Every structure is written in C-alpha cells, then in structure tokens.
Amino acid sequence: MKVISANDSIRRESASDVRICLIGNLGGDSAGQNGQILRTRLVVAELQKHLGDERVRCIDTHDFNTQPLAKLRDIQRGFRDAEQVIIMPAERGLKHLLPFYLYWRWCYSVPVHYLVIGGWLPEFIHHHPWLIRGLRKLDSVHVQSFRMIECLAGLGFDNLRWLPNFRDFPRERPLSSGVGDPLRLVFLSRMIPEKGADFAIEAVDSLNADNKRTCCSLDLYGPVSEDNATWLDGLLQGRGEAIAYRGALTPESVLEVLSRYDALIFPTRYEGEGFPGVVVEAYAAGIPVIASDWQDNGEVVTDGVTGLLFSSGDVNSLKKRLDWLIHHGDALLAMKTAAREAAASYHVDVVLPSLLAAMSINVVTADSRVRELH
Predict the structure, then answer these.
(1) How far is residue 188 from each of residues 246, 258, 281, measured CA to CA in Å?
(2) How much is the pLDDT for 369?
(3) The model's pTM
(4) How large is the average pLDDT for residues 102-128?
(5) Least confidently predicted of 110-114, 177-181, 339-343
(6) Comparing 151 with 371, which gets the higher pLDDT?
(7) CA atoms 301, 305, 310, 316: torsion sign
(8) Where is the Glycosyl transferase family domain (predicted)?
C-alpha cells in the first residue's frame, strides 16, 4: 500500500494555469451548519483564495433530487471544461454519482480527486463492495484519519492521502486563559442524540449533585431541528442554572465564544464521525477537548496533553475525567497551552498544500504566517 506524500516527485502546474471544478453539497442559500456543508464551503473558499475565483468552478449538489437531469448536464460540462475535478459526495451521492464521475473522467481524461468528509467510508463500502473498484480508479482519495487509511489499504487502495480537518484562523485571536470556578465547560455540535449532549448534561448535573455545589457549568451551542427540540427540552428540564442551551453560533463567532470556556466536551457516538472541525476550533481558541474514545478521536485528541479521553457511552467515565480536571488546575492550564500549539498543525496554510500537491499544483502559502500561529 502506498500513501502518497506531498513530497512525491510529480509534475507541477502553476496556479495561474489550472481550472478546477469542485462538485459537492454547498447547501444552497442555507446557513449550512452541518459538517458536510461547512467543510465543502471552506475548501471552496480556500481554493478561490489561493487560485482565484475565475479558476475554481463550483457545482452545488444540494438540490440534485429536485432537478437531477439539469444537474447532471451541469456536472458533465464541469468535467468537459476542467483540468482538475474535486468531488466531495456523502453516502448517497457516492452511490449514485460515482459511475458518472468515472465515465466522464475517462471521456475527458481529467484527474478526479475525492475529499471524504467524516469517517464513514470504510464501513459504507463494506456494505456496498461494488464501489471499491471505482474508488481505486480515482487519482487520489483524501481521508481524515490513519484508521481510514489502514482500512482502505487493506482493500487494495493505493491512491490514499491523509487530509485532516482544517480551519483558517488569525494569529491575533481570542484565547482562553485562567481556570474558572466553577469549571466552564462548553458543548458545540448539532443537537442530535448521536452527538452526545445527553451524556454531557448528565455528567455535569451528576457531578454537581455529588459535590453538593456547582463545581462546573455547561453551556450548549448548536442548531436544533424541530424533530429534536422536544428531546432537548426534556434533557434540560429541571437541571438548574448551571446547564443551559445558548442557541446556534455563526461560524464567525465560534472562536470568540469558545475562548470564554475552560474545556470542550465532545461525547460523540455519531456513526459517521471522522475528524470533527470543532476540535480544531477548540484548539484554536486555546481550550482542550474532553472526548469519547469513539472512532478517530484518539488520533485527534492526545490524552493528557491536548485533552482527555473517556470511555464512549459511559457517563461515569466522563464524570471521573471532569472531576480530575476540577482538581488539577495546573494540568488544565498546560493542556490549554498544548491545545493552542496543536492548532497550528491544522491551519489551512499547513494542510492545503497536501491537497494541491496531489493535484500537481504548486502554490506558495504564507509560511511566515504559519510560523506565527504557535
């Protein structure tokens, strides 16, 4: 198995010559607060920033079901006119559109690069093995974890690249400082059961009850659908002032809000979890992550350094970790420093060159800016 390195000797194109067509769910005019839409928009924004708007064409697939024939014609024209194609489908899009992508790749002799969002692909192709042969024909497949690389390599993939999640954040940004009393905890995610808000609420409420005082507070942020509003209301019922739902955040406000807290609780048990962007945002705000040992979290959170890991689905395990944190303020301060330093590895100017290298595009990024991020 070969994991392609950004340093591989490959033919380079200058950024001024390349035309890229990116096909993915940009969410139309919606606020776009799920990971698929946010990451797709971020990739588009960064490609346009580095290559120029006129060099990057975007085809939004969010409304594919309402006008499939028109959208297929649009995608075909994108392949015809492009020198490079990036695809970012989720499960349904991969299953239905991969045959078209492969056919047009052959027709127009255009390289196709797949950016996988989340950690779902190995399990998905286990249930849809006919996709394996087609995926192996793509010019590169970018995944967010080494677990995924290992799983896919075992299926004969030799076009794999590691592409972690990333964010664009400024050198001068709000950073968490000190240790609160009570400990200031935050949960930021979509309000769905699989993301674990119930575990966070139960652990904090139980810990406060055991100590007979408010030793930690918990604020929850994130969009909630009508279907889950009653579920969330039930979780918050009778919890007191220490636990509160604060609504959804705009992407622009995330770092400033997170910097007000001491740690992020991330108790996910979401089947499609990969490398969540909220972990990068927490690090960029200078706060460690208290995460379940689910899926790839152990690759993203270094236990005892940039955060703490607890047994997935075990409220008592989370309580013990939080209790330890309350009584080890010096360790928490060290984790805040380590989290801030770790953020630099996931800045767009560090991560993006790996994607561009796979596409034989040579772009000079702001190296001096990256060095200043620490």
Answers:
(1) 10, 9, 10
(2) 44
(3) 0.87
(4) 95
(5) 177-181
(6) 151
(7) negative
(8) 181-341
pLDDT band at 16 (very low <50, low <70, confident <90, very high): low
34 pLDDT more than 60: yes
Which residue has 């935050």 as its token pair? 186
345, 374 Cβ separation under 8 angstroms:
no
Q: Which of 141-145, 156-160, 245-249, 365-369 has the lowest mean pLDDT?
A: 365-369
- Report the 3 state secondary structure along the chain: CCECCCCCCCCCEECCCCCEEEEECCCCCCCCCCHHHHHHHHHHHHHHHHHCHHHEEEEECCCHHHCHHHHHHHHHHHHHHCCEEEEECCHHHHHHHHHHHHHHHHHHCCCEEEECCCCCHHHHHHHCCCHHHHHHHCCEEEECCHHHHHHHHCCCCCCEEECCCCECCCCCCCCCCCCCCCEEEEEECCCCHHHCHHHHHHHHHHHHHHHCCCCEEEEEECCCCHHHHHHHHHHHCCCCCCEEECCCCCHHHHHHHHCCCCEEEECCCCCCCCCCHHHHHHHHCCCCEEEECCCCHHHHCCECCCEEEECCCCHHHHHHHHHHHHCCHHHHHHHHHHHHHHHHHHEHHHHHHHHHHHCCEECCCCHHHHHCCC
What phi, psi does 263 have (nearest 5°)? -160, 150
Q: Which top CATH class is 183-345? A: alpha beta
Which of 29-33, 214-218, 257-261 has the least mean pLDDT? Answer: 29-33
Same CATH topology for 13-166+348-371 and 183-345: the answer is yes
The whole-angstrom separation of Cα 199 and Cα 266 is 9
Local confidence band at 5 (pLDDT 50, 70, 90 cut-offs)? very low
Architecture of domain 13-166+348-371: 3-Layer(aba) Sandwich (3.40)
Q: Break the chain into its structural domains and give their ranges.
A: 13-166+348-371, 183-345
